[in-house]
Amino acid sequence: MSLRERALPTHSGVRNMRIIATGLLVAMAALFFIAGTLRPLHPAWGYVRAFAEAAMVGGLADWFAVTALFRHPLGLPIPHTAIIPRNKDRIGDSLAAFLRSNFLVPRVVGRRMARLDVARAIGRVLAAPPREGAMRAGAGKLAETLLESLGDERLGQLFKSAATQRLKALEIAPLAGQLMAAAMAEDRHRPMINSAILWAGRTLEANEHLFRQMIHERAGSVLRWTGLDETLSTKILDGLFRLLGDMAEDRDHPLRAKAEEGLARLAERLQHDPELQAKVSAFRDSALANPAVGAWLDGMWQNARAAMLRAARDPDSVAAGRFGEAMRQIGKRLQEDVRVRLAVNRFARRATVALVASYGDGIVTLVSETVRGWDARTVTSRLENAVGRDLQYIRINGTVVGGLVGVAIHIVENVT
User: Fold this and answer.
1) Cα gap 21→393, rounded to integer Å
2) Is 187 helix (H, G, I), strand (E, B) or coil?
3) What is the pLDDT of residue 8?
4) Cα first-last separation, the chain
């Protein structure tokens, strides 16, 4: 059902109640004249006339009060009528202030968010996404509209800025030191050393002619004349190849031990040496300022944006692939892992509170300016449709209660 269809019962309901209240008032007027005509025939008609007379007074008074809220009764510019149209700007400001002081308060939002299990709700959706329906189609369309309307350049800059700030805040040196120490504790550094030895051997073999040329140029004329420079080059190269081969085969080779000792010392320094940490941080900042890193981040954003657009436009294909399976696994983890759920809920709570603290005033201003931008007829129509039924009940109650009071007064007058 569309919003327009949902709104129709409200309009018709208000109109029906207005007809009933007005019809009751007209009926009381007719009853008043009828009872006045028939009063000489029987004393009971006096009570009926008193009831109708007081009911008319009560109904007219409440009709005036209800009408005066939204417009001038009978179109007459009576003072202190059409209260809502005349004070719509003040109403908007008061509504905005009410929202700011009672809802858009970080403390209130944080307390409310603490009672919500956001992670579990997200997990249920990810684990069993809706296969069809308005929610699935609407979510995809909303995501596509947001991605396209905000603009590629603007979103790209936001992504790039956020990624850069995040990387700048990351202490790379201690993290690298911890990773290196953990790898060495589990002997996961040995393949790295093996790769380094193999790389050294391949590099030496590929550049053997350069090495021989270097020895030839640095050898004396006697060595070159006798051809010993070539012999020396061969001996040195054979020794280096033999050394690299021994290191590759012998895990306890002294040079490998020296290399491991150096790695352990480097891991320790990365974690605890302020001077080395400062150098690593300076290198990190220099690398982030390099245009090549900016281009790399731009490429990452373009790939991510393209993937998000594909997912928004064709959620079925994404849900059916490896990405969909990964999302389902994440959803299952969010529902079952208490620690992960607590972490996600804590992040959601802090993020929401931060948004309220940063943009609460902007939301209040938006509400106030939106109400100010409405014309008086729009404000009157929306408020009347929202509370009109209850206001018409006031008119009906006023008519009935007024009539009962009139009967009571008539009884007291006759008794005395």
Assistant:
1) 7
2) coil
3) 41
4) 62
Burial 206-236 (b: 16+ CB within 10 A, else e): eeeeeebeebeeebeeebeeeeebeeebeee
The residues, ordered by sequence, that sit 6+ positions from 60 with a Cβ below 8 Å of its Cβ are 25
Among 392, 382, 390, which residue's Cα sits nearest to residue 11? 382
Tokens of 140: 């995809």
Nearest to 190 by CA among 204, 177, 180, 200: 180
- Report CA torsion sign: 150, 156, 157, 160: positive
- Classify residue 41 by its DSSP letter: G
For residue 355, the model assigns a pLDDT of: 78
d(CA 184, CA 178): 10
Helix runs in 71-171, H state only: 83-86, 88-102, 106-114, 118-127, 134-149, 152-169
Integer Cα distance of 291 and 300 in angstroms: 14
- Among positive and negative, which fits the CA dihedral 228, 233, 236, 239? negative
Does residue 168 sit in helix, strand or coil? Answer: helix
> What pTM value is reported for the model?
0.40
In angstroms, what CA-CA distances link 269 with 159, 170, 181? 33, 17, 11
Separation CA 83–CA 331 (nearest Å):
52
**Residues of the chain below pLDDT 70:** 1-13, 129-156, 158-159, 215-229, 311-324, 326-327, 388, 416
- Measured distance CA(250)–CA(264) in Å, rounded: 20
CA–CA dist 65, 59 (Å, integer) = 10
Q: Which residues contact 124 (CB under 8 A, 6 or more apart)?
A: 331, 335
Helices (H), 289-375: 291-313, 315-320, 322-336, 338-373
**Cβ-proximal residues to 229 (8 Å cutoff; 6+ apart), any chain:** 215, 216, 219, 223
Provide the phi-psi class of 273: left if phi over 0, else alpha when psi is between -120 and 50, else beta: beta
Cβ atoms of residues 236 and 215 within 8 Å? yes
Question: Using CA atoms, how far apart are residues 213 and 197, in angstroms rounded to an integer?
Answer: 23
- Residues 56 and 26: beta-carbon distance below 8 Å: no
Contact 63, 81 (CB under 8 A): no
Q: How many CB atoms lie within 10 A of CB 19?
A: 11
